[in-house]
Amino acid sequence: MSNPLLEPSRVKYGAVPFDLIKIEHFVPALDVAIAGAKIAVSKISGSTQPADFGNTIVALETATAAVYDIAYVFSNLRSAHGDAAMHALAKEVMPKLIKLESDINLDAALFQRVQAVQQNLPSTLTTEEKTLVDRTYRSFRRNGAMLDENGKQRLRAIDEELSTLSPQFSENVLKATNNFTLLITDRAELSGLPDSAIEAAAQAAQEKGHANAWLVTLQAPSVLPVLKYADRRDLRQKLWMAFNSRAFSGEHSNQKVLQRIIQLRQARAELLGYPSHAHFQTEERMAEHPDTVRTFLHRLLSNSKPAAEREMAELHQFMQSHGCRDDLQPWDYAYWATKLKEDRYQLNAEETRPYFHLEQVLSGAFEHAKRLFDLEFREIHDLPVYAPDVQVFEVVQKQTGEYMGLFYADFFPRSTKSGGAWCTRFRSQYTDQGKSQRPHVSIVCNFTKPTASKPSLLTFQEVTTLFHEFGHALHSLLSRCQFRSLSCTNVYRDFVELPSQIMENWTKEKESLSLFARHYETGAVIPTDMVDKIIAGENFHAAYLMMRQLRFAFLDLAWHSGAPADDIDIAAYETEAVKLTDLLPHVAGTNISCSFEHIFAGGYSAGYYGYKWAEVLDADAFEYFKEHGIFNREVADRFRCHILERGGSEHPMQLYKAFRGRSPDPDALLRRSQLI
Q1: At what angle do helices 460-477 and 358-373 cross, to 10 degrees?
Q2: Average pLDDT, the chain
Q3: Rounded distance between C-alpha atoms, residue 140 and residue 425, angstroms
């Protein structure tokens, strides 16, 4: 049958023909692409020519390209617009991909050729070419090439089973999230909620056929306003409990899935000669060793915990002074912290929403890209999309008109979309016969939807989220690498957040906000005193927020630093793992781990610390901008040249030093957070 996944795209820029792709196309397309990859690989491994960079390393790089082009489309659609059929299909698709990887990595003849190139590197190779050789060799070594036949078969079995478990984990979280709805028929129960949240809840109820009612779900734009503003403590408690017990028990429990993932990751690490999965993962990170991570986390902890405990004591006192005599509970935190922040800075977060119209914020992000990197984003309407509200932009260098790639924007929640926000690619950047093939990049978010009376008006937190994901997009759009496996965001996990997190800094500068923060009705620029209050409040409860991220990082490290018992009590294990970060009472029946997609269904296992690690880099890097001007083109050009364009073509510390002129200052993050 005709299969659009196997045919050259007839769409402009070679864009993915989403309008032609059907679910039944994926498996046949993968089967054809995998068969082609196997033929290409067998030619490499069976070659009688001496192994060299071109006939072995480059040939191997290109052999699987068609397979992963299809896999990108499938995995991205599964996360952003995946119905039950897509999630079910993942259990067939992922093992196919893993089996191909195993066939390649465990091919003894192929490894011999790769090893021969690695041991006889020509001096004429560029830095990126040497990096590709080293990365390819290490990939074989780290994926079982040196095991005996029994070990290889055991590794195959582990990898194939893991390939089905991560999609299952993610599917359970999505189903558990979608399965909870709370229909409210008495408007008085919504006391305290802003009009925008009430209107959104009414619209959600209407869409489900309920008149004169309000529907609350566990999707972030719905549940977060309740936790922050609902006067009814029992309502906050109910929503908090539901959100924090997703996939912990019941029909969609992830407990057994989680345990099996942990067991297999530990077994895999030991089989390959590593003490733990954390040792395996950090070997290819800037940190290089779990002990380095622990030292880093404990340093942040020692500077943050005393301040966080003072913040909690002050918040409890504030809560009691306003008539609530109970102990501070987790479902109280967001509500009372919001009130304390409003009291201290005389600014209600809802007051800022009218100045953060989504379209205007997106235009503001584009304006930053223009001022810093001379990029222009032009919306186009003649390319197919996978959902009606997805937008597409062509990206060009403004001065030269050079085409840099496609940018897809997918902003609003739907039942087929995973929670959170992320950036991904449908096409990678690489160089083919001297011509740079440009990337197709997508940012996917779950922002506040428009209502019948208002456009999408963002919270300030959503503004920073958009700039964060936009930073990831820039990392890909500006990539100028030779090889796709080293381009774009194919960098160490504790380095990949630098380009994203540094972009958040611009949202906290007056000069930046004045470019896009305008009232959606009047067009008035956000008042100076409001900007002052936003900036002044940026470090409000900075220690608490630091502790929250440390909590996730310690939990991640605990799960991946050794093998827990087969009959582990997940709740008890988690409680012990995070006890150093406790600031509020633990609530029985709730659990972080069973919905922790970053580490059990994403790429952050034994790497969640990377967010804080990269924050050190971004704080230090933005100090450089601040010293010379936040839109200084010389500094921006250095950041572009040494960080954004280079992908993973060189060790990230060398790239950072080339940009900054020195190693990062480890105190930069603590200075920015005013914790030292």
Answers
A1: 40
A2: 96
A3: 25
411 near 447, Cβ under 8 Å? yes
pLDDT digits (tens, 9 = 90+) for 274-317: 999 999 999 999 999 999 999 999 999 999 999 999 999 999 99
Q: Give the CA radius of gyration of the chain.
A: 25
CA 619 to CA 632: how far, in whole Å?
17
Residue 637 clears pLDDT 90, i.e. is over it: yes
- Sole residue written with tokens 């580490």: 599
Are 461 and 103 in contact by the 8 Å Cβ rule? The answer is no
Alpha helices in 53-106, H assignment, sequence order: 59-63, 65-81, 84-105
Neighbours of 545 (CB within 10 A): 15
> Would residue 426 count as lying in a domain?
yes
Looking at the structure, tell me whether residues 124 and 222 fall in a common domain.
no
pLDDT single digits (tens) 133-145: 999 999 999 999 9
Q: Is 161 a catalytic residue?
A: no
Residue spans of beta strands (DSSP E) within 212-358: 214-217
Tell me what the mean pLDDT of segment 68-74 comes to: 96
Is residue 664 within 8 Å of residue 613, measured between CB atoms? no
| CB neighbourhood size of 623 (10 A) | 16
Q: Enter the pTM of the model.
A: 0.94
Instruction: State how far the Cα of 437 lies from the Cα of 50, in Å rounded to an integer.
Output: 30
Question: Which of 124, 146, 168 is a domain's end point?
Answer: 146
pLDDT digits 0-9 by tens, 228-254: 999 999 999 999 999 999 999 999 999
Give which of 492, 543, 505 is closest to 621, Cα–Cα.
505
Kindly tell me the sign of the dihedral angle through the C-alpha atoms of 457, 460, 465, 466: positive
Rounded Cα distance, 353 and 346, in Å: 15
Percent of the chain residues topping a pLDDT of 90: 95
CA distances from 159 to 34, 88, 119, 155, 166 (A): 17, 19, 28, 6, 11
CB 476 within 8 A of CB 489: yes
Q: What are phi and psi of 452, to 5 degrees?
A: -65, -30
Contact 460, 350 (CB under 8 A): no
Residues 231, 237, 242, 244: is their CA dihedral positive or negative? positive
Q: How far apart are CA 336 and CA 339, in angstroms?
A: 5
The answer to whether 556 and 604 have CB atoms below 8 angstroms apart is yes
**In this structure, what DSSP letter does residue 357 have?**
B
Residues linked to residue 424 through DSSP beta bridges, in sequence order? 442
Q: 6: which 2 tokens?
A: 């196997």
pLDDT beyond 70 at 564: yes
Whether residues 137 and 186 fall in one domain: no
Give the H or E element holding residue 209: none
* Same domain? 133 vs 185: no
- Per-residue pLDDT tens for 166-195? 999 999 999 999 999 999 999 999 999 999
**Can you tell me the distance from the alpha carbon of 494 to that of 283, in angstroms, rounded to the nearest whole number?**
12
- Which token pair is 620? 């230090």
Of the residues 462, 469, 497, 504, which is catalytic?
A: 469
| Domain that includes residue 524, residue range | 354-541+610-672
Are 354 and 526 in contact, with CB atoms under 8 Å apart? no
> Do both 219 and 139 map to the same domain?
no
Name residues whose C-beta falls within 8 Å of residue 638's C-beta, 6 or more positions apart in sequence: 659
Q: What is the CATH number of the domain that holds 374?
A: 1.10.1370.40
Query: Bridge partners of 216?
Result: 182
Between CA 663 and CA 646 the distance in angstroms is 18
CA distance 169 to 91: 11
